[in-house]
Structure formats: structure tokens, C-alpha cells
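Hey,
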Amino acid sequence: MHLALTTLLNRMDSAALDGTSVIKWGAPVPSFGDLSSSLVATVGLNPSNREFVDAAGQELCDADRRFHTLGSLGLDTWSDADTRHVQLILRSCRTYFRNNPYDRWFKKLDQIVCGTAFSFYTELYPACHLDLIPYATTTKWMDLDQRERTALLDATADALGLLLRDSPVGVGILNGKTVVQQFQYIAGTVLDQKEMTGWSLPRESGCDISGFAYVGSVQQLADVRLNRDILVLGYNHNIQSSFGVTTEAIHAIRDWVAT
């Protein structure tokens, strides 16, 4: 992962990210948890700005800090980062769930993962989380315009492949319809889709929101060959964001993933 992170750091000062909402003073986040020992990885869009700032928008410091920044590493630019800085960033990724994880988000996602006996919160059968775009943005993904979303996806299309290629991950779990769509864009593939009974979300209007499962496998992401098949599972409900996600639906998705 050292080489992948170096690549991501080099892109921080590139023209490809100019004009985007990327928090350029915050380090790239190659993984949440220890990618080098995880067989299962969940996949999201990009790190939340709350990994770097508090509710008032101030940089997290001291015991509240989750990931490194230019300031915490004593750097002026990311091009000044050396091997020691890279190792510090990687350590913050490996130990993320042992320090100050953003539990409000990850505890819900862990309900899906834990049906497999893997978990973000155990060292015996560890799982990790990866993002399609390993850079935090100042605003949420859904608040970015389509031009910026496309620019970020194109600028980081190979990032997930670079990270997975040298990892032991054999199963990727895509969290929500938007992640499924953007993953398919990066992978250049279409996953098999199936409507699932028991996953529907009730609405007062009487029109339930149907649940869909996605299944496939990939050997390549963008132009990166993975040198193996990775099983990809996905679901359309965003566990953290979808309005009215029921406990029954979460348990049904968890059991399907485990099976």
C-alpha cells in the first residue's frame, strides 16, 4: 500500500484536483482499517469531511484527530512528504478503528459486515473500508455538481484498483445505489441486478421503495489488473443515509451478504 499511497499523495498537488472541493490540507485516506490483513472490504464514495473537521468546521486535533494533515506532519506541501510521513499516514489508517472512529457512520455499516464473522472492530477477523475516491471533500458527494463528480472519478479511477491489487481482499461490499453506479463506471462492467423480497422500505404514500441486490466479479479496475477474481456484492439502500431503512431490511441484507 506504500506505493499506492505515494501515488495518491503525488496527485494532491496535480491539476486534476484543481477546482474541486477536495480538502487539500488533509491526507488521502487509502483505507479505514488494516487493508493488509482484511479479506472483506466495504466500499463507499469518498471520506467524509468529518474525518478531518468537527461540527464547527475546525480541524480535529490531539486525541480527536483521525487522520494526518499537512499541519500535523509539519509539511508545507504533499510533495515534501518522505517515507516517514507515508508510514505515519498508513499507521493512522491501520489503527483507525482502535482510536477515534466515526462510529455514527461505521457502526451502521458494521451491522452488514458482521454477518460474515468479519468486523471493523475486531483484530481476529478484520474488515476494512475503502472509498472509490480516497480524498475528502468539503461538501457531501450528493451536493457536488455532476461536472465535479465526473472529474473526481476520472482523476482517481485507478485508485481502488491500486489498493486492492496488493491486498488479500477477496470480497467487496458496495454500500448503496450511487456506489454501485460509480463502481460500474470505474470497472467498465454491469453487475447482475435482482429485486429482493424483504428489502423494501415502507412509505406512508403506499409506494414502497424496492430493494435490489447486485452481484458480480472483477479482475480489473480502470487499467489496473488485480491478478485474481474479487467477488463484488452490493445493495441499493444506503444504510446510513436512506430515509426509513428498517432493522428488518438491514438484517435481510446482512444475511444475504453472509450467505
